[in-house]
């Protein structure tokens, strides 16, 4: 078997060596020391018991236990007392019958109670993979040919929960990547749920969710033209209490709250390094993870740039495609994506409008590549199939590996293909600049296959990427290695484009 595996690799390598695919020395591994502080709920009765025990402690014992907590963990986390206080307030709101007793509780007891409902979570303990790379917003202080870049990764911790994490550095035209040191005080974002909804637009979303017309009208009748999340919660609660609803209708109302919950804004403190910011699941739609964000630097029609990312939210049962938007990587706006062109996974936006419309790649059937066009970034209809598996290494599945890159020969799309033994390889295709539904050419053999030392990991035999970058005349392609760690290859752009056109 080993001999056969070597022969396969030799055959693939001999084909792709005509294009210089240079594996860089950079490696990005999971780091179990990178932790965040999470709220921990023991359930109502158990939580009530814990609170009462702390309330019964005398002051000297309270001080001793709290000081022990702070001495061990304050050095590991920024603003730990602020987090403990937040978790205290949250648990008190859930055990509301103790609220009056707790009014005169001293600060040290509040912080100690908060500590019992706090745990460290290692965000990268299991895996660190599926990277994308983009130019950073600020590019000052660099010599010609060098770019500041941001890499995003999918990090997995305990319980297979995924989050989005970042690294930064400087890359030159030769693909040499200088990784910036990363911080060790990881911070979750603060979330703003008071998103303002447009009633007409929300009504369209309800139809897309197939909420019954009568129930939809009942909900919308009670809402103002511009409403917030708490308004909707109040309306849904009143409808539930005042009507004899079937189980089906109750489930529809849960879906309405689920939809609204998927809108939120998040913010990071300005004193955090980008490597210290983690976008961790915060809504019910993301409770089991945030998967495979594909960031793109989008050029608007007025020449300004904004960063968008598409990702998949997973709640343990269903997936929901989402759009994340930022100008500065401190403040993010998150919204769900809908429509029959936004099913399944693998969505990637084009870096500009095409013929006056937004364009997005997708893999709605889990098997083929599609493109959709829209006037609205969150609604995608009428997908057009543009690629299906053609070569043996992609017979099982073909999909994109990030947003298209604009070249003078067409839209360059790095693809992934799934072949024998569920081996993931990377390929490359070109599409017409003015009509991306037209595939101009694709390479016959894989551009990148798992090397011998990349075949083992969290998910074996996988190379995969969520976004690449052109720097001068070089393609910079970060990739995940068997869903465990990540690395980078560089490829001369003209050699790649010529090879694709030859195919």
What does this entry look like structurally?
- The chain is an alpha+beta fold.
- The protein has 10 helices and 30 strands.
- The chain has helices spanning 2-16, 44-56, 59-73, 80-94, 107-116, 199-208, 213-221, 229-242, 247-261, 493-502; strands spanning 22-28, 35-39, 118-122, 127-135, 146-156, 162-172, 177-179, 187-188, 190-192, 197-198, 226-227, 264-267, 277-278, 290-299, 305-314, 319-326, 331-336, 345-349, 358-363, 369-374, 384-387, 397-400, 405-407, 410-418, 424-431, 439-442, 463-464, 469-471, 474-481, 485-492.
- Strands 9-12-17-16-15-14 form a 6-stranded antiparallel β-sheet, with no helix packed on it.
- Mean pLDDT is 90; it is low at 1-17.
Give a quick account of the main beta sheet: strands, pairing sense, barrel closure: 6 strands, antiparallel
User: In percent, how helical is the residue content?
Assistant: 25-40%
Strand order of the largest sheet: 9-12-17-16-15-14
Radius of gyration: 25 Å
Tags for this model:
about 500 residues, alpha+beta, five-stranded antiparallel beta sheet, 10 helices, globular
Explain the layout of strands and helices.
Layout: H1 2-16, E1 22-28, E2 35-39, H2 44-56, H3 59-73, H4 80-94, H5 107-116, E3 118-122, E4 127-135, E5 146-156, E6 162-172, E7 177-179, E8 187-188, E9 190-192, E10 197-198, H6 199-208, H7 213-221, E11 226-227, H8 229-242, H9 247-261, E12 264-267, E13 277-278, E14 290-299, E15 305-314, E16 319-326, E17 331-336, E18 345-349, E19 358-363, E20 369-374, E21 384-387, E22 397-400, E23 405-407, E24 410-418, E25 424-431, E26 439-442, E27 463-464, E28 469-471, E29 474-481, E30 485-492, H10 493-502
Parallel strand pairs: 8-13
Antiparallel strand pairs: 1-30, 2-3, 4-5, 5-6, 6-7, 9-12, 10-11, 12-17, 14-15, 15-16, 16-17, 18-19, 19-20, 20-21, 22-24, 23-24, 24-25, 25-26, 27-29, 28-29, 29-30
Helix pairs in contact: 2-5, 3-5, 4-5, 6-7, 8-9
